[in-house]
TrEMBL record:
GO terms for cellular component: PeBoW complex; preribosome, large subunit precursor. Gene3D superfamilies: YVTN repeat-like/Quinoprotein amine dehydrogenase (2.130.10.10). One of its GO terms (molecular function) is ribonucleoprotein complex binding. It comes from Nicotiana attenuata (Coyote tobacco). One of its GO terms (biological process) is maturation of LSU-rRNA from tricistronic rRNA transcript (SSU-rRNA, 5.8S rRNA, LSU-rRNA). It comes from the Eukaryota. This is Ribosome biogenesis protein bop1-like protein. InterPro entries: BOP1/Erb1, WD40/YVTN_repeat-like_dom_sf, WD40_repeat_dom_sf, WD40_rpt.
Length: 200
């Protein structure tokens, strides 16, 4: 973590950069706790901010709170928004992975106890029904996560693979994971200074 990142977290500041105007501004909302992770909605002017316990969804145009999600975990580590925009996943410092269907409830739809140590990163694939988590237990989990257009049908979540191959370094494991934008491939970055590509 850089000095700037450390300063922003301690000062509870979240900055939004307007690329078209080459401007930077603080978000016009009061934060309730230290910010941990942020994400934009893929198609609407909604902005997700997670603190250690909760996730708040703000309407950037009307500058108001849209929704508050209760995670129930010890500490949130990362969030990822489904490409459809109505579902998100949350990784936690106690190894739990929570799936939220925001049309259904402000509580998790599913809680998966998949990792034995901290989850460092969660990610959705842009076009395939896949999502993943990476952890300090030196594994990355890949799941099938189908979201249906029929609102009466709940998302289908199925574990697919446990990926291993990184070595532990000072108690840290797989620090990050990212899907290829077009192929069903997963990149992982470990504390062992190795980047791996997993393709089925």
């Amino acid at each position: 973590m850089s000095f700037l990142d450390s300063y922003l977290r301690q000062s509870k500041a979240v900055l939004i950069h307007l690329l078209s105007k080459k401007q930077t501004q603080r978000i016009p909302f009061k934060l309730h706790g230290l910010p941990v992770s942020t994400a934009f909605h893929p198609s609407r002017s909604a902005f997700f901010i997670s603190t250690k316990k909760n996730i708040r969804v703000y309407d950037l145009l009307n500058q108001k709170l849209m929704k508050k999600l209760e995670t129930g975990v010890r500490e949130v580590s990362s969030i990822a928004i489904h490409p459809g925009g109505d579902n998100l996943i949350v990784g936690s410092r106690d190894g739990k992975l929570c799936w939220f269907d925001m049309d259904l409830s402000s509580q998790p739809y599913r809680v998966l106890n998949c990792h034995s140590k901290d989850i460092n990163k969660v990610a959705f694939h842009r076009s395939y029904p896949l999502f993943a988590s990476s952890s300090d237990d030196c594994t990355a989990y890949v799941f099938h996560g189908m979201v249906y257009s029929d609102l009466n049908q709940n998302p289908l979540i199925v574990p697919l693979e446990i990926l291993r191959g990184h070595a532990s370094e000072n108690g840290r494991g797989v620090m990050d994971c990212k899907f290829h934008p077009r192929q069903p491939w997963l990149f992982t970055a470990g504390a062992d200074s190795v980047i791996k590509l997993y393709c089925h």
